[in-house]
Amino acid sequence: IEPALRGAARLRFPSASVGVEARADLPAYAAVGSGGEVAILWTAGTLFGCGHLRHLGACALGTVGVLRSAGQNLEDGHTEVTPVAAAGARLEWQTPLVGFLSLDLHADGFVQLITSRVRAGPLLVFETPRLASALGAALAARF
Questions:
Q1: Which of 43, 51, 116, 120 is the most exposed place for a label (fewest CB within 10 A)?
Q2: 98-120: pLDDT as tens digits
Q3: Exposed/middle/buried for 42, CB within 10 Å: 0-12, 13-18, 19+?
């Protein structure tokens, strides 16, 4: 489980919407050797288009971003930035709460278009999986 921060903006019509979102995962740490570690941070932007039927939505997603890694307490503790790209789909449920606030729940599935790898010297520390998923919940303000 990787907690993330997400912000989005959407232009909504009665049965369709288009939007953009930005996401930043909180740093993850991988232990390497005796006392060393690699910090990994993923940030990305996503464009999406959705079709809606009442509270249910189905969306196509396109994501690009970067995977940043930094070695700490390592002989070769440098920082790397590698590209990330994925295509996917989202199922979402949106329900009004009070006034202009609504609750948005979604499940995403992605296929990675670029495999990104994080290494500490010759050791492979992390590799983006070919398939990925995400669950999300958000409070949304409707204007």
A1: 51
A2: 999 999 999 999 999 999 888 77
A3: buried
